[in-house]
Amino acid sequence: MGSPIIGSLRIALYLAWTLALVPPQLVAMAVGSPLARRIPQLYHRGCARLLGFRLEVHGTMATEAPVLFVCNHSSYLDITVLGALLNASFIAKSEVAGWPLFGFLSKLQRTVFVERRARSDVGRQRDALTARLQEGDNLILFPEGTSSDGNRTLPFKSALFTVAWQSVDGRPVLVQPVSVTATKLDGIPLGINFRPIYAWYGDMDLAPHLWRAFTIGKVTVEVEFHPPVTVEGFPSRKALADHCQTVVAAGVERAITGRRPPVPAPAAPATRTATEPAAA
User: Fold this and answer.
1) Burial letters 205-241, b for 16+ CB under 10 A, else e
2) Which of 73, 111, 118, 67 is nearest to 92 (CA)?
3) pLDDT score for 192
4) Is the model more confident about 263 or about 227?
5) What is the CATH code for 4-257?
6) pLDDT at 122
7) Where are the domains of the chain?
8) Measured between alpha carbons, how far is 60 from 22 in angstroms, rounded to an integer?
9) What's the mean per-residue pLDDT of the chain?
10) Residues near 160 by beta carbon (within 8 Å), at least 6 away in sequence
11) Helix, strand, coil % (nearest 5) of the chain?
12) Fewer CB within 10 Å of terminal CB in the chain, N or C?
């Protein structure tokens, strides 16, 4: 499936685009420039174009930083999709830091690396995340802890939700659930069997999947921003995690089935009453 010529061209452009933006990002990070937050988003927008992604956005993105965006996860391609839309840094498992190329790029993204093991120091990681939020950084969390097949949303692990109980400038952290779903290839619904064109999970080999991502046509990815919440009204981090999982899973299901509520029609003009003067 796909064209080797298109794939080779996309890879060449991807490498050129990457090499062009690495030096300015290194400089921006070294001098503490605000551009260190902006360049990664510019980079991912370029990558999304090169990969032929068509992004459909539903809902309203929270813009009052800092925000903890809580998202489902089915592929490394989610990084490009969310990175193109959000001025934010990712939270990733520590192993990612050692991956060839992608580990280096994740460091340039100013990713926060955490241990996913059950006995890891949750308090230390909470403090590291809180420090980034205190600096005004938005963060992106994948609480499933692994990637799914794209057809379902796995249970959310609650450990890192503890950061939502910290205050930033006297305000509780804003938590916004986000659903990310690949739905179409060249305008045709993917269906269950073809969603692995985008999804990468289990023991799938990275290189063949990455090559396919560069060679296929235009993939439509739907991103739904759900109403943001704070810890108020949630008795525990598990309750907050369960709420986010429920709304994210519902968003994924809506995207897969195409059963979105209709957009309300514009309100009809009010009927002129007898006391109102007629137009001249």
Assistant:
1) eeeebbbbbbbbeebbbbbbbbebbebeebeebeebb
2) 111
3) 86
4) 227
5) 3.40.1130
6) 72
7) 4-257
8) 31
9) 88
10) 91, 114, 122, 125, 126, 129, 141, 143
11) 45, 20, 40
12) C
